[in-house]
Amino acid sequence: MNRIQKLFREPKEKLIPFLTAGYPKLESTVELVCAAAESGADMVEIGIPFSDPQADGPVIQKSSQQALDNGMTLNKIFEQVIQIRKRTDVPISLMGYYNPILKMGHETFLNRCVSVGVNGVILPDLPLEEATPFCELAKAKGVSPILLVAPNSPNERIKKISGLAGDLIYAVSILGITGNNLASKDALADYLNRVRANSVTPFVVGFGISSRDDVVWFNKHSDGAVVGSSIIKNMVGKSDPVNATELLIKILKGNI
Amino acid sequence: MKNKFKDYNLPDARGHFEKFGGKFVPETLIPALEELERYYDEAKTDNAFQQELNHLLKHYSGRKTALYFADRISKELGFNVWLKREDLNHTGAHKINNALGQILLANRMGKKRIIAETGAGQHGVATATVAARFGLECIVYIGKEDIRRQKLNVFRMNLLGAEVRPVSSGSMTLKDATNEAIRDWVTNVESTYYLIGSTVGPHPYPMLVRDFQSVIGIETKQQFANQSNRELPDRLVACIGGGSNAMGLFYPFLKDDVKIVGVEAAGKGLESGEHAATLTKGDFGVLHGAASTLLQNEDGQVTLPHSISAGLDYPGIGPEHSYLNESGRVKYFSATDEEALDAFQWLSEKEGILPALESAHALAYLRQENNGIEPDEHVVVCLSGRGDKDVHTVADALGINL
Ligand SMILES: Cc1ncc(COP(=O)(O)O)c(C=O)c1O
């Protein structure tokens, strides 16, 4: 059983911060991920920066560009995860666009995931139609492919997507990109109940989640809350981004 | 090879041209793409739809466009050059063929808000034009760098009532405008129709843009047979940005015994690192919703293209071109900024036609030494657009202050 599978057996509140690898500095990510884990993060998503992040709003776009300017690459991320794994057992998922992974090759990419201790992969531009080869190989190697569903995904499709994913899916909270505002709680609750009824796996929710109240609410309606843009935004202009991130995660977790 | 294309019917049901094409998009867009496929399937076989489209192509855009035998350059070159005059369309380029087809689809789908990306501004102008004609809201994304290069077209879009949104991410050109249009579409997917300007993007766009542009090749075939005393031309030539004017000319000839050549932008030279010669220099990758060929570095990051012509300044290419390249059916060449500028002036002086800088790349190929063209061949060149929009760029390059 990998760390993600283990985590989602436990019926507890889950907070999953997103951190762009190589932001704000090339070497920031090791400290940030370890600090996040110590401050209460239940799992961490590490964003692979990409030149053309189509599903991201301005905050993550900018962090991604900064990370690339800093020299971040997929190979460096794997090296940093080796460092991270010396210090924490927190489940780690990589999140990124498909092209850098395609370029590295599914096999090489997934072998590296296994050898450094990455437990899951989220690829927002690899929908059900194209995802089978990657997902089957990932599952065979014990890495959880975390496919996405959206508010306009029909019930049958949610079933199929979660079936292919196998361990966990990611419900995008809104029709939109990262950092957008949330829809009304009523509409959200209907949607998340629909995911609950149709998904054969646990599911986390992300996009637009920013406060402690959100984290509590989404954990009632799903199996975990992903916080991205507001974690990144919170680092902008801070002299000590690690400290700032620790503080925010404690707040989001209700520990302060 | 001829046989392989006798029954050519790609893309397959999943939108693949063998390993190219497909749908690599966020989940949110999948229902929208499926809806579009359904409506397009219906429209294809609906006489009323086809009649309305043909009526608009004829009476609004002024088709059919001339197939013009370019006498003076033919004499100079020693072979016969025919120009398919897409520059004579309403709004000055082939882009209107596709814009008219897609706006009718948008109407059928009941979408009231139209978005588009543009590089040279020709597709933006064509979209703003058809949106005005049908009374629909129109937003056009264009890179800041292209706003500078294509001031005239930006003003035209404003006059046509479109909102032009400058894009300042990345290279601030066509690829970034496309990213921004996709983000808008993801956010407003229920109200909005994304009117893509070339044979790129997720399925079904490469197929439907090709189909709407095929009027270029269908007319050319008839006109050539009527105007020459031969059945078919020996060779077709078109410039390649995303590949829509080229697919439009090529597609009706794929099964015929005709040589076909696409011309990419070699910018400052293939070895300079500053070019947009995707098939010549790129490799397999996924961008803007499709698997195709891509200019990218060893980490799979998309690299910045360069071309003097905004419409060719794109690091990707339509998936069908990647397939036609790999299968060998179409040969791809490239022309530099300098060759295109020379060809621009050459056609202006010799034939009295100012070509778009994009089209000038196709013309430049005619003058290249190793182009393989035999004496007395009949060559059809797609003159995809007129050059008025480029006079500032050309003046700049020639060191003239307008
Ligand atoms: C006149 C003209 N020709 C060619 C192109 C390139 O596009 P495509 O390859 O889709 O024909 C453009 C694009 O803006 C254009 O304006």
Quick recap of the structure?
Chain A has 256 residues and is an alpha/beta fold. Chain A has helices at residues 3-7, 28-38, 58-69, 74-85, 98-104, 106-116, 128-140, 155-165, 185-198, 212-221, 229-235, 241-253, and strands spanning 15-20, 44-47, 92-95, 120-122, 144-145, 147-149, 169-172, 203-206, 225-227. In chain A, helix 2 packs across helix 4 (74-85), helix 7 runs parallel beside helix 8 and helix 8 packs across helix 9 (185-198).
What layout of secondary structure does this protein have?
The complex is a heterodimer of chains A (256) and B (402).
Chain A: H1 3-7, E1 15-20, H2 28-38, E2 44-47, H3 58-69, H4 74-85, E3 92-95, H5 98-104, H6 106-116, E4 120-122, H7 128-140, E5 144-145, E6 147-149, H8 155-165, E7 169-172, H9 185-198, E8 203-206, H10 212-221, E9 225-227, H11 229-235, H12 241-253
Parallel strand pairs in A: 1-2, 1-9, 2-3, 3-4, 4-5, 6-7, 7-8
Helix pairs in contact in A: 2-4, 2-12, 5-6, 7-8, 8-9
Chain B: E1 16-17, E2 20-21, H1 30-44, H2 47-59, E3 67-69, H3 71-77, E4 80-85, H4 95-108, E5 113-118, H5 122-134, E6 137-143, H6 144-149, H7 151-159, E7 163-167, H8 174-187, E8 192-194, H9 205-213, H10 215-227, E9 235-239, H11 244-250, E10 259-267, H12 278-281, E11 283-287, E12 290-294, H13 319-326, E13 331-336, H14 337-351, H15 357-366, E14 378-383, H16 391-397
Parallel strand pairs in B: 4-14, 5-6, 5-8, 6-7, 9-10, 9-14, 10-13
Antiparallel strand pairs in B: 1-2, 3-4, 11-12
Helix pairs in contact in B: 2-4, 4-5, 4-9, 5-7, 9-11, 10-11, 14-15
The complex binds pyridoxal-5'-phosphate (PLP).
